[in-house]
Write a structure and sequence with these properties.
By secondary structure, the protein is α+β, with helices and mostly antiparallel strands. Helix content is 35%, strand content 26%. It is built from 21 helices and 34 strands. Strands 16, 20, 21, 22, 23, 24, 25, 26 and 29 form a 9-stranded mixed sheet that branches. Strands 6, 7, 8, 12 and 13 form a 5-stranded antiparallel sheet that branches. It has a 5-stranded mixed sheet with strand order 31-30-32-33-34, sandwiched between helices. A hairpin with a 2-residue loop joins strand 7 and strand 8. The chain binds one RNA strand of 76 nucleotides through strand 12, strand 13, helix 8, strand 22 and strand 26.
RNA sequence: GCCGGAGUAGCUCAGCUGGUAGAGCACCUGUCUUGUAAACAGGAGGUCAGGGGUUCGAGACCCCUCUCCGGCUCCA
């Protein structure tokens, strides 16, 4: 018998029965045999995901295979990072007595391993070099990764004996998760040097392919991500094939830190934080200008799409929050206040206020959909540990809207929200990741209602040709939602926009409209925010643009720089003539050298610097310098004004259509 | 909220094993009148996050609180 394989180039390869991945690599060529780390196996006919396996395992007949080497990109990095996690565990077990190991997977950009240290042992960053050193010894020893499939009972006994409780729990869970028709008989153990771990694999042949690694940080992490369970000590690290790749990665991270919105926000004078109000930004004039530009955009786009702006109170009687359900589900996150013995809650969301507003008068089906927009200020009492610059605050404003419509209008309205979202994001050259979150365990409404709602969201996404991830069970208790995510400079993901279908709030607030049949009907509510919160959005935008905000958002769009005091008068007249409703122009009339004025304008990341001196005054012109030192030469003041307004117009008034970007 | 780390002038940071708090930039004053990324000189600025303790003596050591940073959980 023989094993027939298909290689990536379509060629067939026939090997003896029982041939391994290593045999396959050797059959293709000696160079590949040396470089091979693992083998990817798939059965296109049978379907299913390709699986990366150890080279030492026998190959199945009929498989398509592809040898993984150091050049195989992310898949190969994932492999050695997983290897590195095992080496880390080996080192920690040697250095510290009584450590319990849990899990250690590869992650984006690195790996981690979670440990429980005996009580009294506290690990800090200072301990990392010592651990790295021990790891290095194991890597240099080129210890082999050996896989053994052992009976469940044997593996369990082994870990019980070693007092590795977490491993025992993992085995027990694997057993109970297994199909009763095909019970789990064996689990795989991997041994590298002195260390044996319960692990599915795969691993490279030996530890030596971990060419360069570094332990980055220590953090707490709950066992199984459950805040009711033990907090373990997590050690984060990263690994690459070469030292050069590692240092390139570390440099990239350093560069990313320069984009941090907290740093740039301070440097650019946009906002600041203070101990007197944790989780709340103090907006300086420049930051307020950015803020206002965004609110203006929200208003303009909403106006064009049939939204009406409303204003609702900050503080409501507890009764309203009981009606909305927040008192029961969201109270720990709310600030409450006592007003003459009356318990009141500061609003963490606008929806109850909008629902109440809708209920204060009668509505005909003819006026639906009603679209209320409110850039409303919200307060949420977020746990102290989660506050994070502008990205997670206690005091913020959402570009929030609630649409009240008939069941028949839902689909079209959801679609409208998504189109508006992508028209908005297109203005910022943003790529967002979409998630569809479906019914959670705890929910209100019938299954039929959820079927309908989820189908409507799904169809809207499909009609627009948008790709999305499914996030089952993560919907709001009142309805499914589509969330729009973006990442910050260090790759952390933040939710910006959201579109949520809600059948519950209309019920709770007894909302109704009069239909064509003269009967009262329940409207459907759609919650939607596109920026999410202005705070978070501005934070993400600062990082997205590395502080170099586009012209229309820049707090100061152009600064006039007279070369000496003698031209301050002319400079002032230029600045005055350029300043308008949509233009923000400043004059630097300090008695400073032109070099300094330019340097400071560059540091403030002002898009245009207009140098004026004798020549310019004579010609009624400005010498235009673009951010980053681009000298555009001299332009008559009127020409420059045209250019400025032209750019502003094209940036915000003619957004690219979502279909052009996301077809 | 939980785990770990940190907090010195507006900002970036020195300050050794405890012995009277420093620099650069920014700020103020004066001089300079500047042509595309830093003119020169002088001055002012700190209950060393806050509180308690150890000590003859604490920015340094110990405890508590607050805030921030990195994670976890949670979230726009």
């Amino acid at each position: 018998m023989a094993v027939k394989l298909t290689l990536p180039d379509g060629k067939a390869l026939e090997l003896a029965d029982g041939a391994t991945g290593a045999d396959a690599a050797a059959a293709i060529g000696p160079g590949l045999a040396r470089a091979a780390l693992a083998i990817e196996v798939s059965h296109p006919q049978a379907g299913g995901e390709p699986e990366v396996r150890d080279l030492a395992r026998a190959l199945p007949d009929g498989a398509h295979v592809s040898i993984l080497t150091a050049k195989s990109g992310e898949r190969a990095l994932e492999l050695i990072r997983h290897d590195a996690a095992h080496v880390l565990a080996a080192a920690v077990l040697e250095l510290y007595d009584g450590v319990k190991i849990s899990i250690g997977p590869p992650i984006a950009d690195g790996f981690y391993y979670d440990f429980e240290f005996p009580s009294g042992t506290v690990l800090s960053d200072a301990d990392l070099p010592r651990i790295e050193e021990r790891m290095r010894a194991h890597v240099e020893a080129a210890e082999l990764f050996e896989r053994r499939d052992v009976p469940v009972a044997e593996a369990r006994e082994r870990f019980v004996k070693e007092r590795q409780d977490y491993k025992v729990e993992l085995i027990d869970d694997l057993v109970s998760a297994a199909d009763s028709a095909t019970p789990l008989e064996t689990v795989s153990l991997y041994t590298n040097g002195p260390f044996t771990d319960l692990c599915r694999g795969p691993h490279a042949p030996s530890t030596k392919t971990v060419g360069a690694f570094k332990l980055n940080s220590i953090a707490g992490a709950y066992w199984r991500g459950d805040s009711n369970r033990t907090m373990l000590t997590r050690i984060y690290g990263t690994a690459f094939f070469s030292k050069a790749d590692l240092s390139e990665h570390l440099e990239r991270i350093e560069l990313a830190k320069a984009r941090d919105h907290r740093k740039l926000g301070r440097e650019l004078g946009l906002f600041t934080f203070s101990d007197v109000s944790p989780g709340a930004a103090f907006w300086l004039p420049a930051g307020t200008s950015v803020w206002n530009a965004l609110v203006r955009l929200s208003r303009q786009m909403g106006h064009e799409r049939g939204y009406s702006e409303v204003k609702t109170p900050q503080i409501y009687d507890a009764e309203l929050w009981k009606t909305s359900g927040h008192w029961g589900k969201y109270r720990e996150n709310m600030f409450t206040v006592n007003v003459e013995d009356r318990e009141m809650g500061v609003k963490p969301m606008n929806c109850p206020g909008h629902a109440h507003l809708f209920s204060t008068r009668r509505h005909s089906y003819r006026e639906l959909p009603v679209r209320y927009f409110e850039p409303g200020l919200l307060h949420r009492n977020e746990p102290s540990g989660v506050l994070h610059g502008l990205l997670r605050v206690r005091h913020f404003a959402q570009d929030d809207a609630h649409i009240f419509c008939t069941e028949d209008q839902v689909q079209q309205e959801v679609r409208g929200c998504l189109e508006m979202a992508f028209d908005t994001y297109a203005l910022f050259d943003l790529d967002v990741r979409l998630e569809l979150s479906t019914r959670p365990e705890q929910r209100v409404g019938t299954d039929e209602m959820w079927d309908r709602a989820e189908e409507k969201l799904t169809r809207s996404l499909q009609e627009l040709g948008l790709s999305y991830e499914l996030n089952p069970g993560d919907g709001a208790f009142y309805g499914p939602k589509i969330d729009m995510h973006m990442t910050d400079s260090l790759g952390r993901s933040w939710q910006l926009g959201t579109v949520q279908l809600d059948y519950s709030m209309p019920e709770r607030f007894q909302l109704s409209y009069t239909g064509a049949d003269n009967q009262e009907h329940r409207p459907v509510m759609i919650h939607r925010a596109l920026f999410g919160s202005y705070e978070r959005f501005i934070g993400v935008m600062i990082e997205h643009y590395a502080g170099e905000l586009p012209l229309w958002l820049a707090p100061v769009q152009a600064i006039v720089l007279p070369v000496s005091d003698r031209f301050n008068g002319y400079g002032a007249s230029v600045a005055d003539s350029l300043r308008g409703e949509d233009t923000r122009v400043e004059l630097d009339d300090r008695s400073e050298s032109i070099g300094r004025k330019i340097r400071e304008a560059e540091l403030r990341k002002i898009p245009y610097m207009l140098v004026v001196g004798e020549r310019e005054e004579g010609e009624h012109a400005v010498a235009v310098r673009e951010r980053h030192g681009g000298d555009l030469g001299s332009l008559p003041v009127e020409k420059f004004a045209e250019r400025l307004l032209g750019e502003l117009y094209s940036a915000t008034l003619k957004p690219r259509k979502s279909s052009e970007r996301h077809a």
